[in-house]
Amino acid sequence: MSLTTLPEQRGAVRPSFSGTPGRLRLTAIGAVLAVLVSAVLGAVALKMRSDALGRADSSASHLLLLQGVQTNLVVADADATNAFLKGGLEPQEQRLGYIKAMKAVSNDLVIAAQHSSADAKALGEANAVLNRYSGFVGSARANNRQGFSVGASYLTSANALLSDPDDKDDVSTGHRAIDLIEARVAADTQAVDDAYADAGFARWLLLLAAVVGIGGLLYAQVTLSRQSHRYLNLPIVASTVVLVVTLGGAAVLMAAAQSKANDVRSESLRPALALSASRVAAFTAKSTESLTLIKQGSATPDDIPWNTEYNKALSLVDGDSKTQLEAYKAQHDKINQLDVDGSWRSAVNLATSESDTSANALFLKYDDSTEKALRKAKDDTAKGLSSTGDLLLPVAVLLLLVGLFCAAAAWRGVSFRLNEYR
Amino acid sequence: MKRPRLLAVVGAAALLAGCGTAATSTQPVSQARPAAALAADDSIPTCDQDGKSAVASIDPGRITTSASSWPSDSTMAEIKSRGKLIAGVAGDVTLWGSRDPFTSKLAGFDIDVVKRVAQELGLDPNRDVEYKVINFAQRLPKLQDGEVDLVADTMTMNCARWFGTDDNLKNYINFSTEYYRAGQKLLVRSDSDAQNVKDLGDATVCTTEGSTSLENIKDLVKSTVVVSDVGECLVKFQEGEATAITSDDTVLAGFAKQDPYAKVMAGEPLNVVPYGLGTASDAADLTQFVNVVLEDMRRDGTLDRLYTKWMSGSGTQPDVPPAVYGRTAAELKEARG
To answer: Which ipTM score applies to this complex?
Structure first.
């Protein structure tokens, strides 16, 4: 393009936008742009909510998966420590329980590590620590069965690989396994919160889409009325109505999806997280009970480490599970009192008993009831969140198509008036 | 020792020849022998605070194993009326204090000594002893807090524990007379050619927090790994995180017994380690009573039998050390400030 041609072109453009026809053309362009922008904004809002709910679903699923890993780890540890108290004659069920829990941990860790690169790094590290953990438990058991006292040292070392509130890092292992998993659980919890916040933000974007689109069409209608002295331009009225209906439908759909997601969060996800956290604390308390007995003489009347975990576990459950946990506490208190009083043998007998009223049997009731409740809450969460945003993306596509239709109608409406000037 | 002094001594082997009757609760009431001169022993430090040997304990005086000789407000009377002796012991030191996984009972040299003390207190040694398994770093605090009556846990008699340290002048306890003389040694792999600590090169040596072994070794080796429970050292050693363990030869003998691929390095020990039973600093009467019991055990051959029972075949079986006295409760109080 040479510089000498520019004034000629400007001269050709200027008459197109001057006078009434020019203003009508500008109105048409403005209306078309407003509708298209509105459609795009609306589609983006729908996609944003769909993506946010998808992230909420994904993060919540990952969060529950990780809490499952955490729970299985403390289940395994509780089985290993309690079985150790029985020496070579460990109860077969506890041994099988340990193997089953560790198998689940291995499987779920592999799945959980695929969630993100940060998960891959942290959970890979946790997996390495857990390999050491299971090796130590194996050595503890083998030495215990041969009558070597170093078995107890192996078990203590194994337990220390899981978590140590006083010392987060170990010279030889780096981070502890449960601490690593807890860090990812915290990241997932934050991700779920962020996803819900993003989903909430989408409604403001949809409102903006409505203001731009409907406002643009109304402005075009008013401008045409002034220029042509006709109150209604049917194509523009039609596109306005279609856009209002479509955006209204999208708003209703988004609100319904958000409402359902909120319901899932409050009725399934939060209870699942609470149950899961309760089980982690309760099984940690159970391990603490056995480890305290293994370290004979370390029991204290206030029993702080056990009570800390127990109170945490109790505060997160209600109904039968709460009653069952309280029944277990009554038996645990007897065990601790016997140990404090120096009746260590009786304390161990009580802690390893399998009778119907034993600590193990009462704890098993809590284990069963919370496991069932947790499974249901997890299933409800997965089903609820996975289907929440199903219609949002198709409606986003529809909105884009509607936008194109409305833009064409708006252009057509103004064209009718422009033809009157030819 | 720089100056001559009189210290009480009772040499068990010399004094008790022919007195090998089995220890029972019905044996005659005994009383410690009067103080006698002690030959100088350069391997044991003399404490600056009172000029006495680290192995010198409190003379039993009039205390005997007969309950009638105990004042009504004595520690022994209190323990007897309570109906149980509370003892701090190791749970992971094979041969000295560890749990037998088959019987779930604690067993070892120190456990047998505690049982004898309980028996002489008129308690049932199998029923009336409450064991508190403690690690090395807990030995002094548990006594000071009154959580245990005595500690029988391969505990080294030294001046720092008699009188406290510059860091903690109140961190002191009483000791009985010496009942075993161990030595600080090294445990290495069975295929190791190392003959002494200098041969270890870049080895990482495991030792225990709060032990005298740590203080003695830390300047001699390149790196150390310190654990709270001594049993963890064997874990570190077997897992390859430590190439050697330093501790008392008594402890290491227990490790070697559990691991056929480990051996206690031959040769002279790095340090001499005299064992005494620990009692609280305000329970001098119990210290005296325990000394009477140990005297009986020397005289009736019980200590000899325990040496054979637990340490036979370990390559670590010294003679029973003689009792050394010379301290009094009053002098200790004054020296401790």
So the answer is: 0.73
